[in-house]
Amino acid sequence: MKQFKAILPLLLAVATFSACTKNEDKVFDSQPLVEWDAATYNARTSGYPFPLLTRVPQAYGRNVFTSATAYGAPADPALTRLYVAPAPATTTDTVTMRVNLVGPQMDHAQTFAVSVEPNFSTAVEGTHYMLIDRTVTIPAHSSFGYARWRVLNPGPLTPGGIPTVNVVFQLSGNSEVLASENYKYIGWGIAQ
Fold first, then answer.
1. Whether the Cβ atoms of residue 108 and residue 154 lie closer than 8 Å to each other
2. Fold for domain 23-191?
3. Cis peptide before 88 (omega within 30 of 0)
4. pTM for this predicted structure
5. Chunked in runs of 10, what are the mean pLDDT values of the chain (192 residues)?
């Protein structure tokens, strides 16, 4: 009887933590959406409906590292008029932004427009940046597409000039896939 009393709490604990669990298949059955990858991992900037990044993430699917991490990853490079991407970038002054398809993969390629949001942008195209890809294509049976833009060097900051200019990109949906209302903007601050 003493052994039974000693084993009873153990048996109750095992029974409690190994109870039957319902095996649910999670299926996305809502409207498919597209979003900027970096917008989903970084917090919105105060006063804006999007994050305003001043560093370029060197990997997709994570937030921006503003300092070296505890596990040895270095800080992401600052975005300045002298921006040079670390290796293995193919173009030294180009920033590549990933676009995510949220929902089932499509049987045919999907193309989405990329534009500059003029109400939030202070940077001038052709002076501070150049938008290389005005559309993003997500191939058939894929969940990702890429848009590129280039940082331009307008020269040293003039007296009284703005020390940081912002460029905000907007992602638009198409007839089949909408742009996510929460993540359709991504902002970049370029230090001069």
1. no
2. Immunoglobulin-like (2.60.40)
3. yes
4. 0.79
5. 75 70 69 92 89 86 79 81 59 82 94 96 92 96 94 82 90 95 93 84
